[in-house]
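Journal club prep — side note

Before the paper discussion, L.F. wants everyone to see what a predicted structure for a comparable chain looks like in token form. Sequence:
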Amino acid sequence: CDLVVRISLITFITFIHLMTLQIRLMKKEDIPLLAKVYVYVYKQLSIGENWTIPAAKRLLNYWFTKQPDLAFVALINKKPIGAFVAGLKPWWDGNHLNDGEIFVHPQFQKQGIGTTLSKALYTNALQKYKVVSFDAFTFKKSSFPLQWYLAQGFTISKDLVIITGNVRKILSRLQNPKS
């Protein structure tokens, strides 16, 4: 049994060394495969967001079109396995990264790929736009990824709250305030 565990470990370590990680700016042709990864990641998270491949493609195209120089992809052996995208917003104290999406295929999570993607995006944003902050939101349902962000130096805002609303209901209440 010990021999089987050692052989399995040696096989796993050999497999890891055969993988080649590359981080680069996203290309339009990366989006179809990244959309599949995105959908798979959210299915694994099981947080109630039911992404489809067409919806994920629209989201990734949005980010790619909005800020292509802040859209990084992680590839293993030239195959996209994750990405980190963010927007840029001028603010009173300087440029802020805002919103954003980072995702890595579960098979490759907790191996430093998200951290490597983050370093690439933050370095580029600092050099090119002199950003001072990254304003984003994440899930509070589970400790991951919140604890990962907190370990990087993010803090939970004491002054802000995220609000969301159904636009039809909001408009209806604005048009009929007493209902």
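L.F.'s comment for the group: The radius of gyration is 19 Å. Keep this in mind when we get to the figures.
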